[in-house]
Amino acid sequence: MTYCVGIHIDAGMVFLSDSRTNAGLDQISTFRKMIVYEKPNDRFIVMLSAGNLSVSQSVREMFQVESVPRESEQGEPGVGGPLTIWNATSMFDVARVLGSTVRRVKHDHGESLQKAGIDFNASLILGGQIKGEAMRMFLVYPAGNFIEATRETPYFQIGESKYGKPVLDRLIVPTTPLDTAAKCALVSMDSTLKANLSVGLPLDLLVYREGTLASDRIVCIDDSNPYFRMIRDTWGQRLREAFDEIDEPSWDSSDARHPLRVKSERYAPMRKIANPNEKIV
Amino acid sequence: MTYCVGIHIDAGMVFLSDSRTNAGLDQISTFRKMIVYEKPNDRFIVMLSAGNLSVSQSVREMFQVESVPRESEQGEPGVGGPLTIWNATSMFDVARVLGSTVRRVKHDHGESLQKAGIDFNASLILGGQIKGEAMRMFLVYPAGNFIEATRETPYFQIGESKYGKPVLDRLIVPTTPLDTAAKCALVSMDSTLKANLSVGLPLDLLVYREGTLASDRIVCIDDSNPYFRMIRDTWGQRLREAFDEIDEPSWDSSDARHPLRVKSERYAPMRKIANPNEKIV
Questions:
Q1: Would you say residue A83 lies in a domain?
Q2: Complex ipTM above 0.95?
Q3: Pick from B39, B265, B271: which is nearest to A32 by CB?
Q4: Which of A110, B92, B184, B204 is an S-S bond match for A106, by CB 3.0 to 4.6 Å?
Q5: Which residue of chain B is at minimal alpha-carbon distance from A230?
Q6: Is residue A255, in this structure, part of any structural domain at all?
């Protein structure tokens, strides 16, 4: 399994990936799941991958040389040469190239994998910026189709996403500052690491500031990283303090503030079977 | 789907269940998933159910009349009449009766369900106390086998369990006070309700105090319940405050406290592909 998260907010983008790959509990390895495709001062593209490792490694490799026919403004295909991630003028086209790459890998390996009883699965988060265009982030599915992050849904997760979702849902909005989003991604990762053995260190974290077409905020986080250690030590404690600040339930229905024991206006009391011979009706 | 949680701590037990049943997004209904089997001053047994509704309703119905052969101390089966939930002298035997009930329902319906392409799935949390014995809690699987909660793992979840697990993991220990555990179960449910449409109100909450063989702390919580509304309004805010109290990441590697940007001692920097013709090696 895997846990990767990509956050797309006004100030920039945050990418975070774990590095555990497993084929059973006794066969775990470390493979990094983030890769950057960069053309200085022209484009900066980040990809995170989850799924079958042989598939996602092939996709990473082939993505940089994949091309799709260009659709010209006149509707004549092929004008201007094929479209690649290095000459595309929009991130939408880069996502099309990635979709095509996924389909090509599926064409090569999908049938054999299926015969071996293995699902073809690869989910990818693709984010980046091309000079002259806004930053964009996409989630690419195993069929090569994709969706784009919006202001209403400013993040994508792939892999083991559920444990770390509540904190993202509650904290990330388009106006969240960039470093705060990075902190939130790390807290989300911490919850996932605690719950699922198939997600593991080291992490790769990349923070991209809007418009820069580059990033020097890239760090590989292992268990000696001071900041992540602080989060792991602190968040549970802070969570407990927040929890303690919430009133305990009051079973006194005359409690003026927020009694727990009130009769539901719509629902009957829960069913109790007190007599061994009573039938449920 | 469903979300139910049972917590077994020193002071007592907490049971919480949602009530949404769905067969597709456009076919949702309300079915309560908690039931109490009670013999005053003798035994108090609570069951929570998840899975196919037709299966779990049959299990609920048949559980109260199910019997298994008694194994006498001399190893002669049948002495003293068959064992039921009403005459069992240990919760372990009650769990055996429940396992037998599950297998009986599977015997009746499993093959037809399988032919219809429907999984036989029923997961059950069973907790209770019989006079003279300690409280015990079990998780019963679709095959009728079961495990028991321990001090190391003092809670069970069934259904859509992942969203609400981190908060239980971090907050529940055997010495947690009973009302605090109830509050924690409600926070865990709140996270799940926010994330998954297949979990819905009303909730049934039951708090059992060790040794009482009864409970008057039973409440059906709908969206007008003052305490649960307070939790839904407050927890997100408290979580945000706790999050804000954690230091933002420091990209200054000379930061004396806990810099984020430090070079990993073990791992290379993340891979960047800067040249269109570079090959991944």
A1: yes
A2: no
A3: B271
A4: A110
A5: B258
A6: no
